[in-house]
Fold this sequence. Notes:
Blueprint: E1 5-8, E2 12-13, H1 25-38, E3 44-49, E4 57-62, H2 64-73, E5 77-82, H3 87-99, H4 106-120, H5 124-131, H6 135-143, H7 149-156, H8 162-168, H9 173-184, H10 186-189, H11 199-210, E6 212-213, E7 255-256, H12 259-280, E8 285-288, H13 295-305, E9 311-312, E10 319-321, H14 339-369, E11 372-377, E12 386-391, H15 406-442, H16 454-464, H17 471-478, H18 491-496, H19 500-515, H20 524-537, H21 539-550
Parallel strand pairs: 2-4, 3-5, 8-9, 8-11
Antiparallel strand pairs: 1-5, 3-4, 6-7, 10-12, 11-12
Amino acid sequence: MQTIEYIETMNIRSSDLNPRKSFDENAITELSKSIIEVGILQPIIVRLSHFKKGTENYELVCGERRWRAAKEAGLKTVPAIIRELKDQEALDMMITENLQRKDVSPLEEAEAFMNLIVHRQYDVPTLVARFGKSEYYIRHRLKLNDLIPNFRTLLQQEIIGIGHALEICKLQEKDQGELYESKFSESDRLRNWWSCPSVKQLKGSIEQSFTLKLSEAAFLLEDLTLDKKAGSCITCPKNTASNLILFPDSPSSGICLDRSCFKHKTDIHFERELKRIQEQEPDGILGYPSHIYGQAEKDVKELIKKGVPGVELGYNTGLYEISEPEAPEAPVEADYEDREDYKDALEDYQGMLQDYEDEKKEYKEKLESGNYRKVFILGGDNRGKIVLHEQRSAKGNNQSNTGTSPEQLTKQQIIELQEKDKRNKELSFEKHYVSAKELLSNSGYKGIADHLSETEMTALFVVMMGGWIEDELEGELYGKDHGRWIDNKLKLPAALKLTADQKTRIMRQWLYQNLNTGSPLYQISEAKALIEIAREKYPDEVKQTELELDG
């Protein structure tokens, strides 16, 4: 039977082994008040320590909150159980006690589980059995240890939730840093309009910007020669399909979480295939799409300078990509808050499904016609892939295809000319936009202190009109028969014609939309600003509400 002894409070010290480093001072004060009234109900656990020679002193193993509260309450002695424990045994008890607390944070759990694995040689099945948690739970908590410091701080401050953290910690450290700077940096969060994205929005953003579908890789996933150190993509831990506990929604081929490794393998595959085709397939076509720009465009131009016989695909060569149609994704009812929105999405899906069946039939007919050629792609999204292209008439070729009349060919050429002209204009616009964006970014535009110009005010309203606008105002701006969705191209023309009344209403709707929060205790400035607007516009009603709340 263990005996409880009363030992001097000042002869006890905190342990350096304790994985718990932070304590809620308010909670300690509350506990100290309780201790003054009823005493310490549960003894602390200590072990002998020799941090002062010649004196009998003790090191805390369990009960640091009680000990801190006892010191604050002025207790000279505290009830304690003294045990002979080795470092590993003491650490085990500390971790176990911390994990059994009601207020243990996800990060503290993560560190505690990792401590048991590192220092006690536990494994995941042992942790599952000992703490009664699922393997899914344990593995996700362990993964939180991979969060970079900035995101750990945001989780501790409850700016992001555990759902956000579980998505972020799956990324490589470099990608987490990039995500933080682009969406969560302190400068972003200080802006009045910033709000934490939902977990669904964050997941979509991560998938779009930081992950790569392995089904779309140009190289063979099982090819060990591309990078011997990285090995096969199929068994790689950075492939989501190899860990369905962490990534239950992963597609069967998986998603790559390491963009640099993916690019490295793609580059090696590209160089190999380019050399093979040039040496072994002299009649092979090396092509690039007309709509590439930026770095991809520079890379293709560099290849052509080196003597690679690349040809522009499309109108100039008469080669047009045959893309296998993709099946539309069925809407999931759980993703929709409004039942009517789900019904509308389901109706849209049925229409897309019919279009998919038609496109699949047309694709099959094209393949069976035999009128296609294999093209090795030199640049763009399909770089390094061999893609099927349909052979049509090329620019300047007046010979008709088999079974095509001169009249039909002329019509086809006109359509192709129109498509070419349209795409050229789109490319020119995109390049113009990129150039203007870089100019504003690098010229100090954001630091100009002058009043906004009329052009800038119009741009501001374009941004505001991107949010939700009430039906009545929407009808005024775009016409009553504008349809369910507003064409983005209509926003700028509408913004240029806004009346003073419409501008005011848009600003008020935008204000309400951005001050409307489901977390007023977190977005406290936004919540207070909304209250002050209500107080200014409807003082009597607000006063009545305050009287009722005070009463």
